[in-house]
Amino acid sequence: MKRIWMAGGLMFVLGMLTQWCAASARANRDALLAADRSFDAATAGQEFDGFSSFLADDASTLRADKPVLRGKVAVQQAWKPLLENHSISLRWRPISAEISKSRDLGYTVGSYTITRTDEKGGALVGSGKYLTVWRLQADGSWKVEFDTGVPDTLPALANQ
Question: What is the domain extent for residue 13?
Fold first, then answer.
């Protein structure tokens, strides 16, 4: 009888641990999605400075027909012309996130829209998908380690 009680107790503890781990994983994914949404909002509101504040020191990126860019400064220099151009708006929305078992790395996948206002006030709109790899920092924040995207559409007039 004692063994049955011990086995039942062990099963209960394992069940609770499994539920706790699942809830913790959901909370971590939710935190990473929130970080990506904050990254978008900071970039939209503060442009270059907002974007830069989310980059890890060793961030890297891939861009079409360019070498791999490594380091925060190289990534900043690549994005600066776009982010400081007031006729261009870049917005994105994460669709999903996953966290590593070690809980210190994660990635988000989502869609982006880039809008450029031409000289006549018309909006040229393009869209695409992106992948961002994040690392959890000692202070509990997430920083971008790697970012890349691919276009779905070429910019076209929004009114067409």
Answer: 2-157
